[in-house]
Amino acid sequence: MREKVYAYLKTVPEGRVVTYGQIASALGNKNLARAVGNILHQNPDPQNIPCHRVVNRKGELSDAYAFGGREAQRARLEEEGIVFRGNGTVDIGKYGMA
Fold this sequence. Notes:
The chain is about 40% helix and about 5% strand.
């Protein structure tokens, strides 16, 4: 499953986000969202596997973002043109994958 998660993430374009549940569903089991998160935490190549583009179903960033924390994740998304709401979340309707 690990390689499938990483392969899927490589299809998420710059300036877009996906949720853990969307990845799990795309891989065939929507109940594996937590497993997706664990896999992302072990990302061996964060420069080429864009785990910073994954948010929760509410558009919230991860407190446990493994590559510098929440602020590093936010900075990377902002560099890609994502604008955050006043409450610090990403508008999935606007920035989510279609």
